[in-house]
Amino acid sequence: MQPSFICPTCGKSRSSSQRVAAERLLDKIRSRIQANLPGWDGQVTCRTCLRHYRVLVLREAMERQRGSIDDLDASILARMEQNQLLARNLAQPPPRLGARVADAVATFGGSWLFLGLFGGVLAVWMMVNVLLLSRPFDPYPFILLNLVLSCLAAVQAPVILMSQNRQATRDRARAEHDYEINLKAELEVRLLHEKVDHLVLDEWQNLLEAQAVQTEMLDELLERVSDDEAH
Questions:
Q1: pLDDT (tens digit per residue) in 189-206
Q2: Where are the domains of the chain?
Q3: For 211, which DSSP code?
Q4: CA proximity to 33, closest of 7, 71, 15, 14
Q5: CA–CA distance, 125 with 145 (Å, rounded to integer)
Q6: SS3 44
Q7: Helix, strand, coil content of the chain in percent (nearest 5)
Q8: Does the global pTM surpass 0.70?
Q9: Distance between CA atoms of residues 143 and 147, nearest Å
Q10: Burial call 83-122: b when 16+ CB within 10 Å, e when fewer
Q11: Beta bridge partners of residue 184, listed in sequence order
């Protein structure tokens, strides 16, 4: 059984693997915790609280930049706080027969093959009724042909619209998913940059302290050498 500790931030018992030292926190996050919990000892916290305050800091930054956040942004932040993956399978279930027919009609109706066949049928229809038949079934001005074309357009238009609506729904879902992934990546990169800056500043501070100690030791050594030469 793993040892546990009581997180001073949330007051819950957590496993030791969830322990996070306060010096590893960004200054913004540490300040936000202290603002919410004045009695926080500033020593440790847990990963759950760390995710919560990270998202809280990101939410405040987004609100400052945009003025407000919409439901989609709030959903992304909530999933980040719960450490959930945003990637999901966008594959649609197999469409029903009507949807498959609508897609097939839209695909065929928007092809050069359809235009060629359509033009050929019109040409044959008019040639047969004008040149080849002594008693044409649809004499000029081709009233029956106009009726057929009107019926074809009346049927084909809503079928194509149904297919376009389904495609628009798929495109909208894909666009929202891409936005979710891009926003999370942007927020993670921002946190990463701040973390790197934090580490660089800490390392720079350590180097300055080490340099100060070395300078002090060097001064003591020079004083000792000077005393030896004086005697």
A1: 777 766 666 566 666 666
A2: 1-84, 97-180
A3: H
A4: 7
A5: 8
A6: strand
A7: 75, 5, 20
A8: no
A9: 6
A10: eeeeeeeeeeeeeeeeeeebbebbeebeeeeeeeeeeeee
A11: none
